[in-house]
Please model this.
Amino acid sequence: MLNTEPCPCGQPTTYSQCCSRYLEQGAHAITAEQLMRSRYTAYTQMNVPYLIKTWHPDHCPELNQTELNATQWLRLEVLHHKPGLKKATVEFKAYYAADEGEACVHERSLFRKLKNRWVYVEALNF
Model:
């Protein structure tokens, strides 16, 4: 991805001003929302190492590169971020291309602080 392109996470900035700092420069997200947005961007880039690094080790599944390659992500819409000191939630819609047109993953995600870094834990029930 070119650093001058709009960031896939939906923020009104370029990739270099936004998620590049997490995915390429090793910075840690300050909020759960920042981490969620950077993880979405990692999905668009099929960046498995970043996804594993930002997943809680007790909850990280085997990631299938073929499945990641098969999904064309279109856009992200963050609906709600409930911040906290040690845990937080982010509700979002992630749109992707499907055979019948556009489809959507609607999720409320749980994030926790682990060793002073935010990590994704799991999707929560509504």
About this structure: The longest strand covers residues 101-114. DSSP finds four helices and four strands in the chain. Helices lie at 20-23, 32-45, 48-53, 65-70. The beta strands are 73-82, 87-98, 101-114, 117-124.
